[in-house]
Write a structure and sequence with these properties.
Beta-clip-like, mainly beta, about 130 residues, 2 helices, about 10% helix
């Protein structure tokens, strides 16, 4: 569940991206998995589309967490860049809360560290 207002538009990183619609402050909560919006399923029962829009939480390695809102458009940063969102505390649902690594200006694409998704190697073609 996204906790910040974002827009979806073409990304220079990959296909479609998630962009801040307002300025975001360092350590502001960006996302946390929540059952009212997001879902989970056993990884071995996930479709390719589920895998594309979901992620494999390192805390739940046999489960695919599927974003039910625009968080599904979050991209990994380019190889030479650091992500602008980082992991925070663990939520009540055994997922890491994502927070802003630094102040993020309106219009900036939100990026997430590949290590937050055990499926990132397949997604990046590694």
């Amino acid at each position: 569940m996204l906790y910040v207002t974002c827009t979806i538009r073409p990304s220079k990183i990959h296909g479609t991206g998630l962009f801040a619609a307002t300025n975001i402050l360092k350590n502001q909560v960006l996302y946390s998995w929540h059952p009212s919006i997001d879902s989970r399923k056993p990884l071995d029962m996930a479709s390719d589309d589920d895998k594309h829009h979901g992620y494999v939480n390192p805390l739940l390695p046999n489960t695919l967490s599927i974003c039910g809102d625009n968080a599904k458009w979050w991209n990994f940063p380019l190889t030479e860049e650091a992500p602008n969102s980082i992991e925070g505390d663990i939520s009540e649902f055994n997922e890491r809360i994502m927070v802003a690594a630094h102040d993020i200006l309106c219009g900036t694409e939100l990026t997430i560290d590949p290590s937050t998704d055990l499926d990132y190697s397949r997604k990046l073609g590694i």
